[in-house]
Amino acid sequence: MRAPRPRLGVEVLAERCLPTMFGIPWADPNHLTLSFAADGTATPYGPNSLYATLGATVPTASWQRDVLRAFQTWAVNANIDVGLVADGGQPLGTVGAVQWDSRFGDIRVAAAALSPSLLGSGSPFSWSGTTLSGDVVFNSSASFGIGLDPSRYDIFSLMLHEAGHVFGLDHSTATGSVMNETYRYQTGLSAGDIANLRALYGARVADAFDAAIAGGNETMARASFLPRDSLLSSRYLVAGDLTTLSDADFFKFTVPAVTGALGVSVRLQAAGLSLLAPSVTVYNSAGQVVASGLSMDPLNNDLSLRFSASLLGGTYYIKVAGATQDVFGVGGYRLAVDYISLGTLLVPLTPLLSPVLDGHTDDTLGLPRLLSPMPKPAPDDRFDFTFAGAIEDSTDVDRYQIHAPAIAGTGPVNMNVMVWAIETDGLDPRIQVYDSTTGRPVAFQVLANDDGVMSVQVPNVNGADDYIVSVLARTSGGTGSYFLAADFNRFALTEFSGVTTGTVNAGGSKSGKLTINQAATFEFALSAEAFVGGTGGVTMTVYDSAGHAILTLSADAGQPTVTAVRYLTEGKYTVQYTTRSGGTASAMEYDLFLLQLSEGAGPYATNTGTNDGNSSPPPPPDSGYTYSGSSTSRPSGSPYYF
After folding, report:
1. What was the pLDDT predicted at 609?
2. Has this prediction a pTM greater than 0.70?
């Protein structure tokens, strides 16, 4: 179908996520990744057609650069890096890690047929832990191009708006903001946009090497010593950052006599780490250039140089700078120097997380690992604590002590804790929370409890108290690495809506009818409780109108609520509940909750034609669906788990 020409009037840029979705920063914004989904990849709105949609009028390299330029325009203003990675073609929203899933980027860019009133859809980070967080979808029914063209929508302008949503910013009515709800041609961010971004992520700070030297390591005279790689004595390895367009990083290293005669390898890696377009220059001790290279392409931004060192060895200097004077002249990188010998195979510089192996030193509540909070000069709402660890064997439990920091403002303070598996099909992690003083468990509310991820909130915590967070495998014998993030904040609590509560006799079943009034993304949450001390649980299966099972959740009696996220189109669904016996037959009580994560990812009503930038008010939390069944009782929202 031929994409329509832009028409005069108000064009809504994107769907609104519910208000509780905005304002939450990414857990590790310094290591975000982005991928372009291949055409045919399944999205909640139909097959992806990104390359066909944007490539109809613009060469692939050009539209990809403008998409990356939009994200980089935000990133250079805060503690954010976005690296380009390959996309494996898994469906958008597939179960996986909310960050660092090796199969695709944290941010995935696609295109599909959205409502005619939408130009795109962008999703921020969510406590639900869904991989839909960060995904951006162009409306394939619209026509896109580059620059100010009355016949097409500008790719950079739309993506600049959607990238703001991805980073956690809501719509704005401020004059000149790229977060205005209606489409306008844009060339950059307003001062207010930058201030709002920095309130979440803080102003971009210099790397440790610049910070350690008065005036930074900007010149050969103030060059930083390259540190040795802890795993390879013949290699120097460092992670750095070009914080501004004027920033240049100088490093020095020594080549022993004879060692460098066969050559010295210098590699800079930015691919997968940032969108930096780098230049690298190598000097000898006399200041003469012995090797140099640059890349002005953020799509191909790794560099590799070689030079022959003197037989007598000596000191050499490396200058790392931006190759461009636009936003691609800023970003993080890794720099490696290797001595080349006969038969040398240079180990690839892949962006690896390095989980800490504790050797069972923190398995007990009495000996937790003390986590230090991230230094964050206000305003900066990044997570207070992050840590990469591993469950090493079937008996391992990792325990971490965290201290509630002082938080400006008034009102209750809440604690959010998330953990997710780093490897695909790896650890299925679970969380426990304890009061550090008494050692007693702290009740929490489950926000996500799906394969490979768990997220909880503890409302109304006491300021300046200590807590112990335990990470363990959900089932006996589970092992693997994980990422833990904890934050104390004054965010509005995430509240599920109670849908239904009922009882299923052992071996029996019950059913209900779920009607979705407007297509959207929903999070299901199911809990089970046994009567008369029985064991087992309840299994819930959701069927579409054609009788196809689209979701199955199994909740164990007395265990934390389990969750799953699905995009549901408008229509009628059947929900069936059955018991699972754990050896003792018993009736089971079940509770079903729903959280609507978006306000209609398809149709979205535009405003009435006045170009005032005001968005429609959010609907009630459960207005997108209705439920009927054998039980009319509704549980209270967001149950506690003790």
Report:
1. 26
2. yes
Q: How far apart are CA 145 and CA 631, in angstroms?
A: 53
- DSSP labels, 172-191: --STT-TT-SB----SS--H
Q: Which part of the chain has CATH 2.60.120.380?
A: 208-339, 369-375+383-489, 497-641
pLDDT tens figures, 40-68? 999 999 999 999 999 999 999 999 999 99
- Lookup: tokens for 412: 């209750």
515 bridge partner residues: 572, 626
Using alpha carbons, select from 235, 251, 258, 234 the residue that is nearest to residue 313: 258
Q: Residue 266: which of 195, 343, 340 has the closest Cα?
A: 340
Q: Treating both helix axes as pointing N-terminal to C-terminal, what angle do 60-75 and 155-166 enclose, rounded to 10 degrees?
A: 40
Q: Does domain 208-339 have CATH number 2.60.120.380?
A: yes
Write out the H or E segment, with its range, that includes residue 71.
Answer: helix 60-75
pLDDT tens digit string along 74-120? 999 999 999 999 999 999 999 888 998 999 999 999 999 988 878 99
Distances (CA, A) of 175 to 181, 191, 480: 11, 11, 49
Q: Are 561 and 481 in contact (CB under 8 A)?
A: no
CATH dotted code for 12-201: 3.40.390.10
Task: Say which residue the tokens 């610049």 belong to.
Answer: 210
